[in-house]
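Our preliminary data section would be incomplete without showing what the modeling component actually yields. Below, a chain of 214 amino acids is followed by its predicted structure, encoded as tokens that our downstream tools consume directly.
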Amino acid sequence: MLFDNDGVLTWLTSLDVFSRAIETTFAEFGVTDPDPQHVEALYGITPDELQRICERYGVDPAPFWRRRDRNAALAQHAEIRAGRKPLYDDVEILDELDQELGIVSNNQADTVSYIVDYYDLPGSDICYGRQPTLDGIRRKKPDPYYLQQALSAIGTEDALYVGDSGSDVVAARQAGVDSAFVRRSHRQDLELPEQPTYEVEDLYGVRDIVDSTD
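Predicted structure:
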């Protein structure tokens, strides 16, 4: 069983946290008054969009993105320590599962590893986040790259991927595994691009899926 992280295991990070990290990155590259639309675009972006924004300010996209990701990771570490990015209560079900567990997230690999270590989560050996590179952007979900890496590490093609976004559902389908979409409160009105294998309200529903298929 593989799990997305943000919005599934831990609370979502406030967008203000990312804004401050991105503004800090711009300042480190000599840009003190970036366009707010460019700051917002850098929450999640394609390599081509990153290239255009970096050309606008005359900065090299590769080191800029590495620093952006590092600043975002450090900011999220601080949020975790301050208790503003806690685990959901239903994460307790992970201790009840007999399946091998792992985490595959679009968040930075640094952030995902920090969360696993800080909260002592099961599945620490199979833990994949996005690398702070231009290739890392290209490989984020819905691309199945990191999900396939996790499946290969476990040594299986038979898995359930638990997520809270359309990209999670698409990545699971492209990787050839079942998907469970968790419709938490922040996803109540989300329209999915395709039907997941299962839809549940919380991780207790995921436990029920496992119990019914054993």
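The CA atoms of residues 92 and 203 lie 9 Å apart. The longest strand covers residues 102-108. Preliminary results of this kind motivate Aim 1 of the renewal.
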